[in-house]
Design a protein that fits this description.
The chain has five helices and two strands; from the N terminus they run ββααααα. It is mostly helical and 182 residues long. The radius of gyration is 18 Å and the shape is elongated.
Amino acid sequence: MGNRLSKIYTRTGDDGTTGLGDGGRVAKESLRVEAYGAVDEANSAVGMVLAVAGLPEATRRCLTEVQHDLFDLGGELCIPGHRIITPAYVERLEAELDRFNDTLPPLKEFVLPGGGTAAAACHVARAVCRRAERRAWSLARVEDIAPDALKYLNRLSDLLFVLARVLARHETGSEVLWRHRR
């Protein structure tokens, strides 16, 4: 394990730079920092879903694993050239996605974010995850990023959408469907 922080502030970022996992320094607004920062936001948003009382155990287990994965992904992104996310991470998400989606009826309309506290929080996590994916793709356009990291974020946003549907049905018995105004 790397260094542990015993003192939280270091003053080294006061010049607008931050340290990467390999010891290098970059601007705080660099694409790399934007990417792993957005992954951190996604992890925090998943934490908000997990903070909702009465979450079904299968959902809690799944999202707890996702939080560990997102920490791994952030670690991968903060060390140029480092690889942690493997195809197995993506395959596990796909299996979870299939398992949760099998319990739902097919969609015929768009779903509005809402349907209960946990469902709404899951929709926020999905939107934040999409932002993390966009930031990771921005970085991938100029630096070498492992394809599995990008695939993981794409599958995760799909999983969070499906979980939001599951949670809406758990909390209120139905989803909030978009009504097109003609």
